[in-house]
Amino acid sequence: MTLRRSKNKMIAGVCAGLAEYFSLDPAMVRVAYVLISIFSAAFPGILIYIILWVVIPPAE
What we know:
There is one protein chain. By secondary structure, this protein is mainly alpha-helical. It has one domain. The protein is 58% helix and 0% strand. The chain is built from three helices and no strands. Helix 1 crosses helix 2 and helix 2 crosses helix 3. The longest helix has 14 residues. It is globular, with a radius of gyration of 11 Å. The two termini are 13 Å apart. The mean pLDDT is 90.
């Protein structure tokens, strides 16, 4: 199984793609991402999301 962005997406499918790759619930990954972003002053979380959006290939 390869890491890909998901078609089950809210913005770009990054969190859902990570959830599918690690066999986790996409909602829980999204909540964890938001909490981590808030507690890290938001900017690093947004920057990481944009980088992953560019690096992770889209779903087929």
